[in-house]
Queue: 2 jobs
Job 1
Amino acid sequence: MPDAVGLELLAEELREADGESVLDTLYFRDKGVLIVNPVTIRATLERLRGKGFDALMSVHGVDYYPEEPRLGVHYELLDMGALDRLTVKLRVPLGNPVVPSVTPDWPTANHQEREIYDMFGVIFEGHPDLRRILMPEDYEGHPQRRDFPIGGEPVLFTIDESDGKAYTK
Amino acid sequence: MSTDVTRTSGYRQLEESITMAPLERLGTDELDQELLTLNMGPHHPATHGVLRLLVTLDGEVVRDLKPIIGYVHTGIEKTAEDKSYWKVIPVVERMDYLAYYFNAYAFCGATETLLEVEVPPRAQYLRVIHMELNRIMSHLVWLGTSALDLGAISMFWYCFRERELILDLFEQSSGQRMHTRYIQVGGVAEDIPRGFEQKVREFTAVMPGRADQYKDLLANNEIVLQRLRGVCPLAEEELLKLGVTGPLLRAAGNPWDMRKATPYCSYDHFDFKIPVGTEGDNWDRFAVRVAEIYESVKIIDQALDGLPEGPWITDDRKVALPPRHELATSMEALIHHFKLVTEGFRVPPGEVYFPIESPRGELACFVRSDGSSKPARVHMRDPSFVNLQATAPMTEGSYIADLIATLAMLDPILGGIDR
Amino acid sequence: MAVKREKLVAADGSELSSDKEDFRIRQLRARDMLRGDLEGENLEKYMEERVLTTTMDKAVAWARSNALFPATFGLACCAIEMMSIVAARVDVARFGFEAFRASPRQADLLIISGRVSIKMAPIVRRIYDQMLEPKWAIAMGACSSSMGVFNNYAIVPADKFMPVDVHVPGCPPRPEALLHGILKLRKMIQDDPDMGWRDGHGARGTEEVVAAEADPTHPTAVNVFRPGNTGGA
């Protein structure tokens, strides 16, 4: 993991190339985190690839309800040569949940971005095939948002059956 | 190396050399050269779990492949937000259902990082022993079912014979065969019983011989060699671009294994090798996994030799349940027990990504905590979910039979893919 | 499961005598019947006396129960334990059930092993409909019987969309437990030849293809296709 100083230097270099790309840095539990601007995410990841982080291990979404901007997308980068890991986070509001897709540069993000779209409703611009991956095609709603109800059935016991509350009559 | 059999095998010449004379007599039309889209699954004997593949075929040659998943989607990540950290462990264990110790460890490791609790060395060694036993068990099930797909049906019974030995060990230490909830936050649920070490040693004495038997049965078999050697290779750069890790990447020549690269949980105390392949075809994937069985046996032996004395779970009463005998004498123990069982421990706010090496690749758990006793977001980065994207590039231009063999060598576990 | 036992009585209601001579007479009559020598009135009288305790139904039920063909239908973790019953330690071949058929047309037992997600439920139903009668279903594990460990938006208990005969609890159930469930099903089939399972589960009309004159507007008719109408499949 780049240490705290290394993280700040990295953020400086990125800011030199594009002033608004890095919004914040965070060093938490021995791991560096960069909070970046969603609009320039592709360029930021390319610059990080140039710095050695050439493996994108995971792309996942988070719902920060009730804080705004509500939807977050995290990219986990790995530098296999230097054994470094780095997290890149971005936040988008619910009203405009559009993030440029990194799939053209990093093919591994294909299914993972589809999953974020399915579960959170983040729209990835430029994704070759953005549709639901885990839920049925015609499902409405984005299940992993915090205000989506967890759902479920009431548990059926034998006494309910004799009361006539069976699942099927 | 191109996998397009039409170019390398004279397929087209063969096709064109067939005369249509007998069919013309019957008055039939010319054969269509259209592409046929075939739906395989989700209920199909050869798809491991409920995987649906839309395969576009040109004769018997696969031109395109689209996997459709979601048929076992269980909403595990959403359920985990509803439960306290202790209760999330059994929920998350059922994700990749052949590597349950790894699922539990990824989640517990992430929570321990957030809580900043120390895991005692005995607990780390016990975790390693159980995880390596689980790795062997996962590879055995993979071997049995893959050989079944290839047609070597009797391998299934031999592999499951060994699997029963491992499940007996799991039952001895935790009481359950599968989904044992043995790895807890801060250590392991219970110390190993008397006689466990001896039983594990009996197993590790026997296992390398059994693995030799499997190699005798399969490795020189003409049919297995023809079906696996040189079939559906994929270059290392392609695999890295697709995010593939684990035995698939190691088969292509890249020795990335987190147990050696970024050791966790005392793996750096053990001496073991990483099997690496050369060509990245199905044969290398098969050989790498069988070789990993031997290495895991070595790790278990070393862990038993060096098993330190001490507590099996952290002493921090705010995280781990106090031992039962203390409840009769100490008031604080009673209060801690009550708080832990009803509400659970609170975790300081933060976000952590904890990666480990599971039998299929990099398994990681992302936990976001908002300071309460329930996690605000749990995401499992499952290796099979990412590895599945490599199916299409691997099987383009090969036959359907090669597709089945490649799916078997890919070792997808749909529980992890769909979560 | 209460097993009804009936005392043997003669055709006129009197108890059969346990006298040695009478017994010998009955033995000879049984032998004659087996040889086909009894005819007409004698045969009817004999059948009424029910010297042989099995009837056709019971014989058929015995044959059906000992030759169940399970369908290979593994969904999730329970599928691994279902594979374990085929393995050598808990050997389901002792009972004759090791021939797992891949095609639902050839299977008569559907073991729903694993969690049924909402995307998979219509497919499970379709496979169940494709099976020919008589067919049985075992809901293996907690997830398919009730909601199991996961009580959320993504799972459906199997009872909601198909009739289930035996529920096997466990997460996952031990292979021995699943075998116990299968043997319980076998006993159910043996003891009650006409299980009336369609009535018991309100499953009339669950056949996939029915005769042309069937009424598709019948309230319990589901998946009723007229010949030629494949329902979009």
Job 2
Amino acid sequence: MRPKRLGVVLGVVAPMLLAACGGTSGPAGGGPTNESDVSGSIRAANWGGNPTEERLVKKYEADFMAKYPKIKVTQEEIPSNFEDKIKTEMSANSEPDAMYVSTKLMNFAAPAGRLLDLGPYMDKWGIKKSDFVGSLMSPWQYNGKQYALPKDFGDLVLFYNKTMFQQAGLQPPTTWDEVKSDAKKLTSGGVKGLSLPADPARWNAVLFAYGGKVLSGDGKSAAFNDSKGVDSATFYTAFQTQDQTSALPDTLGATWPGDAFGKQKAAMVVEGGWLIPYMHDTYPSVQYGSVKLPPGPAKQASLLFTNGWGCSARTKSPDACALFVKYMTGHDVQLQVLQSGFALPSRNDLANDPAITSNPDVKNLWDSAKFAIPWTFGPHEDKVESAMGDALTAIFLGKKSVKQALDDGVAEANTALQQ
Amino acid sequence: MTAKIVKRGGRPGGLIAASEARAGLLFVVPYLVFFLFLQLGALAFAFWVSLHHYDLIALDNPFVGVENYLKLPGNHDFLIALRNTTEYAVVVVVLQTIAALIFAILLDAKIKGRNFFRATWYTPSIASSAVISMIFLWVYHPTGLLNGALSLVGIHTQEAWLHDTRFALPALMGLNIWTTAPTFMLMFLAGLQDIPKEVYEAAQVDGAGFLKTVFSITLPLLRPVIFLVVALGIIGAFQVFDQVYIMTEGGPLKATLSVAYLIYQNLFKDTGTVGIACAQAVVLGILIFALTIISRRVIDVKIEY
């Protein structure tokens, strides 16, 4: 599946755009060859997360400047609408040198030639692709070039409420059939077995496990309404529409599935590592465990959400910026990312760290990266996602049949893709 | 505009007038500069962009003529947004104008605690629409204030108002009426002060009752203010954005997708659709302009005494 996903990212935008701007990233051979000789001043933009994460980014940057005293980093924190802000800055040629790169940002900025091709700098400063978790690299590749390096990731597993499972005398599910039957046994009164949202960022895990795909191979049309799409959406929505063993978080008086899980209104949820600190802070008394998402008819799948660090193609200090990216995605910082518990580190050399091996939930999340598929859909990503979301909502609300909803969703996505 | 003022100043004996005109011109220069560059300039630029296949960060934005405009009638989202926005504007403008008028007339009467009621009723208009939207997220929440109030009168529901295709748009309408009606009430109150007391006294002598006075004197004499309120209402309602952005993001199932929100999506959330967004903005602008002119023709007619 991975080559196919890569194909999507690679194929979507006219390559000529890239050719037109190749001149900006000069040969990396010039300039200093010793890391400690690199000097410069760079602006580094990150989005605002929670206060702890913000403090950590500040600390990493201070550590970086201590290690590279000739490079000055100015942090530019963008509280919200990160991509909007960067896009606007890029249009005014005033974007920061280094920046968080989301898949959204990647998908519009790389084809437009606005991101620095890191390839030459990776060679120059000894950054090895093999250091990173394999599936995390493809989202940052376009036309064979590497435009960002992964700074962390999250993926999906199935969390279950230990107390409820014990009371019902159930073992954690290992197949989707067991999830289905367990959900029936766990549903009673105001408590549902599951809380699955009308969110393609959950359904797509099932879609991929059924062997389906969101876009066609060339990325020019949507393909989630084939028989695999219909079967997987039928399976995903039937928990609510037929079995009534799942309910939208809202119906359960919760803001998101994790909230319903914490309030013990849902015995199982499909969520990522972000649930762990959330449960710890908000619902510390709830006993829960996790299992990897069970294999579907075609294969085992999960969704991979990742963000990276990249540089502007217009940066005046590409070496300094590349070293900054190297440091932020390097072992030291990634170890702290892991220990902070907000996301998983992007590097293979942390696989045996006790923070992963001693925590079964983190271990499940880490291991799921092997079969998780990056969630990224090219330059019209937002429209594609909302077309899928609307299709799911229509099914959940009983407004359309599964087939009809997906057909309409594909038509809507195609309007955007073929614009 | 400029030419006219100077010419008048040039009339015989207009020496003072001329210097007054110069002073006046001087006073409006700062605004004029802002207007020319940031409003008229931006407007012209938006029109220019609407004739291109445009992206904010692309290196090449080819000229496509009116293609972006020709695409609009076939653009499903645009038609939905246009229908939603029109529906929204009609309901909001009519109801908020009536509500503002009723409250203005009531609060113009000499009742006890008049100032208290005026202040209370005006409070919602003080807060910014973003703040109000955040508050109403919780009012409309399944376990929120609205359902709580309904349960007091015996209606027990877990309705998620903003997630229901039937209620999401009306929920936004209600919120907007609640916030803007008081501002317009203030305008009506000001308008009511302008109606000469003698007219009412004469009507009283002739034996007209309260309702007769309202319909035969107050409403006709308020026409200019009613036009102002309706025009401002139309302009505001057709531009509805903040509430949609904060509360529903156009959902569920595009039930609250407004033209302004669609323009924003095309500007920032998609790639290569800035030209389309600008075409949509131009059409929206023309639509608002036309409706304002029409409402002026209909409402603000000259009255004979």
